[in-house]
Fold:
Amino acid sequence: MAAARTTGARGLLAIQLLGFVLALLLLDQARRHLLFDFNEAAMGDFTSALYGAAADGGRVHCEALNIAPCHDAWVQAGSPPAIFWLGNSQLHGVNRMVPGDKTAIMAAHDALRARGDWLVGYSLPNISMMEIAAVVDTVGLDYRPKLVVIPVVLNGLRSGSVRDEALPLLRRPGAAERLRGTRVERSLAPLLHDRQEAVKVASLADLSEDRLESGLDRVSALWAARPDLRALYDYGTDMLRHRAFGVTAQTQRSLINPGYRAQMALLGDLVSDLRAKGIAVLLYVPPYRQDISGPYIPAEYAQFKAELGALCAAKGARCADFDRLVPGPEWGLVKDHLFGGVDYDFMHFTAKGHAALAQAMVAEIERAGP
Amino acid sequence: MLFNSLTYLVFLAGVVVLYWRLPVRPRLWLVLIASCVFYGFWRLEFLPLLLLSAVMDYWLARWIDATENNSRRKHLLIISIVANLSILFFFKYLIFFRDATYSLAALAGYQPGFVELNIILPLGISFYIFATISYVIDVYRREYPAERDLLLYVCFVVYFPHLVAGPILRARSLIPQLKERPPFDLALVSTGIARIVAGLFLKVVIADPIGAIVNEGFARVPASLTGLDSWTLSFLFGFQIYFDFAAYSHIAIGSALLMGIVLPENFNWPYIAATPREFWRRWHISLSTWIRDYVYLPMAGSYRRQGNDAIAAHASAPQAGLPREQRTLPLFATWALMGLWHGANWTFVVWGVYHAAIIWLHRQASRFGLKVPIVVAWAITLPLMMAGWVAFRSLTLMQALTMWRSMVDPAHFRGLTLLPAAYTTAASTFALMLAAAWVYHWLMPRLNRDGTAFRVLALGYYTVGFAGIVLFLRVTSQFIYFQF
Structure:
């Protein structure tokens, strides 16, 4: 903003200084009065993330970006052929969680351990099909799996990208070689190499930035609260957009489009690649709240299930439909922390729901008998 | 060192304080040392290349200046240009041309052995190489005398505000300012702070969040995008690259102003341009004028008609060039080079040729003397410029072609498959940009007459600006033009 003719250089500097002070006061007020638990809000009220250990103490359910704990437990167990289960936050979100609750992955691991199988699960919020392909091909194959289990979420077939934070998975040593010649390679290959790699190496700038950031975090509560304030800003803009366009959890949006087709084709490629390696595949339609109208258009949902069945038949995978597994009262709610009110959660359910999913999954795996 | 980092802000404050306390000569040493520190914070091992390139051109320019023999002067000029372009070729284009050669060989049925190359692109190499080439050419043309002071000349090349992403400076615009010791000017300082605030806000509050949406969209399978998706992504990337690069230029200009040095403007509201030609007068001005002066005009200039002394002929009659119909080849060649300057990928070449085609079409249309209302001309120009960014941002030619096809094929228009935030961000950014243009071009000149209204508006602007910067300042991404 150029200096006004009537506001000299001193005046402008004073305005800049005052603006800086006002900005700090404004942010500090937001920090004191507006912050809440975003992790809880992201998964709906009273829903918590649970990644945990099996009854024998080894980690068997991990976040997809935090590979090591589950891998270490598997190595300690003697690296047995594994069953690899990968999905979205439905697998780690537990509504109204109490101590001792288990996710479906943890419960299924315990049930299958008795017959000598090692089930390991990874989950990532809103995981896309490209991310599933990336994790299966770069992490899943480390386990020499005999069976790969993938929930196919209709809403998840809308998006076909890999988030920045998941890119390191694709750049793990050996990832490019492992993908070479596979069907999913053409979808993931552009992500294997970083266009800006030259300027992303560790440098003096990185070191000094880390020092300055952590130093300010220590001396200023406002600076330390910046990630939460940024999350508040993102949350606020999302809620504002939903309000402006009247979007609720039950708002139906058409999902079957070229994006959906591309994601289904990618899923088909992934199954073909795994089957070519001699690995069995189990695809399932995940639990979906049935007692109220949901975001899926019924005709599209039916078409999706039919197409998934056809894909399984064509590619030699097993298919299961678990969508009626969890009764209405076991599902969660989402609270609007900005404007008030609650909305339905069509993704996360209670530990009872997880137990039902685990039981159905174990039965399906036993039927598959890999 | 990145402009959008705490490290840079601390570094800049220290340099500015020291700069105003020192007399001229020690100031130059400070500029040199500070610039080396600035560059070395990225990678120390590329500093010698930067300094070596500067020193080489210093001596070659002096030699050219001292030589009366035209033929020898020309040979020295060629040595300088070839040496500079060789450095650029090795670091930026070797892998690209190797791959192209291998592809051609494979088409011809040969399978040559594949040599693995791991070459890191030195930061800002395209910018400082162009700055030194223009200096040597200016000395050759006798438009600027060779600088005798090595320290001063090296400071011109490595001056940190413009070092890694421009503006691409000419010696005549910086060296005289570095020589002087202007009195401390509070007006320049307050304007410098204003420019830095504007730049940081554009980068961390606007460009980076848009960048996250763009990355997500361009990472999708291209065939899955509908026409509306592709148009949305092209506009979003158009906004991202503009705000990102304009932000860099604001901070560069602001940082220099804090030291009493005025750098040329690099952007002038490009998205309000009503013709492709006007767009390029408003976008990356320092590169556009560099390419015009050192590539296009010599190619399309008078020397072809006169046959021998190209540059002298151009200098004496810069407007006298090839007939209009014979300027097409230089136009396309220049733009292909312009594209290649941005990156070693066919997508950039296609982006350059796309713009050449748009300019050529505009030239042809202009010959009919058709008068179009300015709003209509703008409404045609803006989408054409935005569509061009698809090639620029795509990782492969196939991705660009697939997205372009979806943008023009009515059968691909059904549905919106991106994240909802993509559409609302594109629409709100577009509206905000128009509002900002209205405030800047219409409201501000009127408010300047009323000090109180201006002060209130300015206070609101700086409060929001600083709040956004404090909240979002973090090194999540480099500036896009760092990779060039």
Summary: Residues 185-261+391-484 of chain B form one domain. Confidence is low (pLDDT under 50) at residues 302-315 of chain B. Residues 70-107 of chain B form the longest helix (38 residues).
